[in-house]
Design a protein that fits this description.
about 120 residues; mainly alpha; Cytochrome Bc1 Complex, Chain D, domain 2; elongated
C-alpha cells in the first residue's frame, strides 16, 4: 500500500514538474501581443526596417508553431542581439513576452489561424 502511494505521488510530482515547463509560455493575450510585437519588435524586424543594423524580417508566419516555441526558449533568447530589449520588456510589463509569444504562436504558418496579411 505504501509503495503504491509513493509511486503515485512520485508520478504526480514528475507530471507537475514537466507540465510547468510546457506551460511557461502560452495562454497570453494575443491582441496585446500583436500590439507589443508591432511596438517593440517590428522596429528592427520589418522588411523596411532602418537603422544601423536591421535585423532579419519576422512575422508570425516566418516560423512554425514548434519553431516559435524553440525561439522563446532561454537558450535561444540568450543568443539574440536584441536580448536587452527582451529583458527590458520582461521587467517593464509582466506577461509581455508571453503575450508576444501567444500572438506569434497563434498565427504561425502551420497554425489553424495563420496570419494572412502583415
Amino acid at each position: 500500500m505504501i509503495k503504491t502511494t509513493l509511486t503515485i505521488l512520485l508520478a504526480l510530482l514528475v507530471l507537475a514538474a514537466t507540465s510547468s515547463v510546457v506551460f511557461a509560455y502560452g495562454g497570453g493575450n494575443y491582441r496585446k501581443g500583436k500590439y507589443l510585437f508591432r511596438k517593440h519588435c517590428r522596429v528592427c524586424h520589418a522588411e523596411e526596417a532602418k537603422g544601423p543594423k536591421p535585423a532579419k524580417s519576422l512575422s508570425p508566419v516566418s516560423k512554425t508553431m514548434d519553431e516559435w516555441v524553440k525561439a522563446f526558449e532561454p537558450e535561444s533568447v540568450a543568443k539574440y542581439p536584441c536580448k536587452d530589449v527582451w529583458d527590458k520588456l520582461a521587467a517593464e510589463s509582466k506577461g509581455a513576452l508571453n503575450d508576444i509569444f501567444t500572438y506569434l504562436h497563434k498565427h504561425a504558418k502551420d497554425s489553424p489561424t495563420p496570419l494572412k496579411c502583415k
